Amino acid sequence: MTGSRSESRYAAFLREHGLLVGGALLVHRILSRISESCGLYWYRFYRQPLVAIDSPARSSGTLEFVWLDQYHDILGQLPRPEHNIRLRFEQQVKCLLACKQQELVACAWFGFGEFEEDEARCTYLLPSSAVWDFDVFVFPKYRIGRIFLKTWQQANDALGREGYRYTLSRISAYNRRSILSHEKLGAEKVGAALFLKLGSVQLMVANLAPWVSLSWSAASAPRIDFSAVVDDA
To answer: What Gene3D superfamilies does UniProt report for this protein, alphabetically (predicted)?
Structure first.
């Protein structure tokens, strides 16, 4: 029975995404079951314009917004390992929190300068006019309302006032819901990359420089420069 349900979910995924993405996901699942160090990761890169608003609101009703550039205990409410959250702050990142009193409702994370991919070995190099957005999260009981849009608008306003023109992000080709959400907000696809991981060996094929990379360690990992996709906008 469980196998039947799994097959049914995969058939629905194929209908929605097509054979190419569906086949890649099947390969990824098979590889990841063999080893946690194996997988087939397919990313699509998106660029989204930022527009500054002169007089931003610091709150929205009972919703309060706070920026963090270091770990705070309230982040312990996130369904993420604390160790992983602390590691994020070892890079140039900031987190925008949306809170109701002491309850964390949503958050959005942004990287500056350069950002290390956490699933594959790769560094994203960011121009001074762009930030990297990742892990925009809304707690399940608040997903029906407008919390996501309010949080994103608050981030948009603050970053725009600081002179940033775009956010850049990567979305798994297997996550159609996230792709559609970003596209509804005006995100434009600017590239893609495929990472095949087999233990310590990693092969990357992308339509952005360096195009192809074969690496065995972090020292030989590819570095994707997004300057061209921002400067050309």
So the answer is: 3.40.630.30
